[in-house]
Amino acid sequence: MIAASLLFLFPVIWMLANSFKGDAAITADMNSLRAFIPPALGGSFLNNYVSVITSTGFVRYMLNTLLYAFTLIILGVIVNGLAGYALAKINFPFRERWLLIIMLLMIVPMETIITIHFLIIAKAGLLNTVIGYVLPMIVNPFNIFLFRQVFLGLPDDIYEAAQLDHCGPVKYFFTMVLPMSKSVVATVSVFTFLGVWNDYLWPSLVFTSSNLLTAQIGLNAITSNENTTMGQTLAAITMITIPVILIYSFFSKQIVEGVISTGSKEG
Amino acid sequence: MAFFGPALVLLTIFLFLPMILTLVFSFTDFFALDPSLTHFVGLENYFRIFRDEDFSKAFFNTVRFVIIIVPLQGLGALGLALLINKMTHCKKYFKVAFFIPVVMSLAVVSTLWMQIYSPEGILNAILGFFGMTAQPFIKSAKQALPSIAIMSAWQGVGYQMIIFLGGIQAINPALYEAAEMDHATPWQKFKDITLPELKPLCVFVLITITIGAFRMIVQPMVMTGGGPSHSTYTMVYDIYETGTVNWEIGLASTMAIVFAFFVMILTVIQTIVTRDKEGKHANKKTKKN
């Protein structure tokens, strides 16, 4: 089983090992087991990384993506969380109808409407702006539904007690509901982060200006440059993968729970 | 209602409006670079895309992709979940190992596998080591789509493995204990307990993989540009190019509607088929008893 998992991960191991080598060494090692072993520590060990960091805008693209991700996590938790709370706990006209609509929206593939998103953002003059990139991605029917399912289980007597203390519904939501639901907030945040960090199609449509590129689009710009070596490409894709592996190792519980919840919900 | 307001505004602008516009535009020849020329053309776009060589090619590529990836990824995930479930220690390590590609981005995985599949790449070096001839992989019209399918299955299999593991662990252990009292073989236990108990989950997994396959675009965009000779062109790729490169929003909207229709029809068909089987299965059981 250990052998099987190593065999399964051979592309990742190869990527990591060769990201520290020059192209001549990568080619020379290709026909032996050395292809999967990093070179000896030496002066040139980090060369690929240093050149990617110093001679391309890659660090900037990664910081951009980080900023977009945090913006979308905050806005997404607020907007989708409030909507989920309304659907779970507040009586408003056609609430059950809205819940059904949200559930139906979950099955609409985003690719169907991405052309129109592009058209709307272009017509609004928001191409190549952070706002144009962020705006269509805030609301997410799946997250609304997820929040709603969790908030449904919150006891009502806490809310009644809070009302006696003159705690309004907005204050109650931010000081009580969200802190009581840390687990779902964490799940939504982690999935939002992974979604933004790994997204390719939407940022490739919105951003053409090199200052605002996300890491994935920046990667494309770097690899399509003829002067980029194979070692540099491997170093760049390793750098782009490190944050998601870190997130995964810190939040694997949330990720696994999130994955299983999508399975058990419909299964 | 105030709580629902922000979401409602965004849902209206970025989901309801685009959906309605897509439907309306699909009956027009809306060309975004010169909107003044727009006419209502009825069903003409719908007839046109079915005659359109690129779109039918994209459709059949998508179907081929589904046929390759669904059994590969589905059986792979089930097999891995069963193996890991049997492990007594280091379960966590294996779960992590097989899940790593899932968190990597499609663009990264595609860039990485481009190097792996390259004519002088590591995969051909390995084939050479075993005395096999070098393969062109993504450089050939014949092998490009299967190559991308294998890569995509590799990337996604950990996700469904986790779902299956959750399902296996949720099976009532009393069922296995009872089977052991009856001296059931491991295969009987698998066939009569594990598989039936996992059935709804299997359906769910097959549907997710199929829908994921239908939505494929990033892999060919990064690796092949849809080629060689359109062999990796997909429906979403055609929507993307028609709409955002050629600005033919009317035609792209028609394709998007057809795409959404297929995705939904597929979901419905799979649900009906499994419901049928479950019915038959139940009948068989009662007959035996």
Q: How many structurally independent domains of chain A?
A: 2
What fraction strand of chain A? Answer: under 5%
Helix amount of chain A: over 70%
Q: What portion of residues of chain B belong to β-strands?
A: under 5%
Please tell me about this protein's structure.
- The complex is a heterodimer of chains A (267) and B (289).
- Chain A is mostly helical and 267 residues long.
- Chain A has 2 domains: 2-45, no CATH class; 52-266, MetI-like (MetI-like fold), CATH 1.10.3720.
- Chain A is 71% helix and 0% strand.
- Chain A contains 16 helices and no strands.
- In chain A, helix 5 packs across helix 9 and helix 14 runs antiparallel to helix 15 (230-250).
- The longest helix of chain A has 32 residues, at 58-89.
- Chain A is elongated and about 75 Å long.
- The two termini of chain A are 29 Å apart.
- The relative contact order of chain A is 0.14.
- The model of chain A has no long low-confidence stretch (mean pLDDT 88).
- Chain B has 289 residues and is an all-alpha fold.
- Chain B has one domain: MetI-like (MetI-like fold, Orthogonal Bundle), CATH 1.10.3720.
- Chain B has helices spanning 5-25, 44-51, 53-86, 91-103, 106-117, 122-129, 144-169, 173-181, 186-214, 218-223, 235-245, 249-288.
- The termini of chain B are far apart.
- The chains are: A mainly alpha (267), B mainly alpha (289).
Features:
heterodimer, A: 267 residues, mainly alpha, 2 domains, 16 helices, elongated, B: 289 residues, MetI-like fold, 75% helix
Explain the layout of strands and helices.
The complex is a heterodimer of chains A (267) and B (289).
Chain A: H1 2-8, H2 10-18, H3 23-29, H4 47-55, H5 58-89, H6 95-105, H7 114-123, H8 130-134, H9 141-151, H10 156-164, H11 169-180, H12 182-198, H13 201-206, H14 215-223, H15 230-250, H16 252-266
Helix pairs in contact in A: 4-15, 5-9, 5-12, 5-14, 6-9, 12-16, 14-15
Chain B: H1 5-25, H2 44-51, H3 53-86, H4 91-103, H5 106-117, H6 122-129, H7 144-169, H8 173-181, H9 186-214, H10 218-223, H11 235-245, H12 249-288
Helix pairs in contact in B: 1-12, 3-7, 3-9, 3-11, 4-7, 5-7, 7-9, 9-12, 11-12
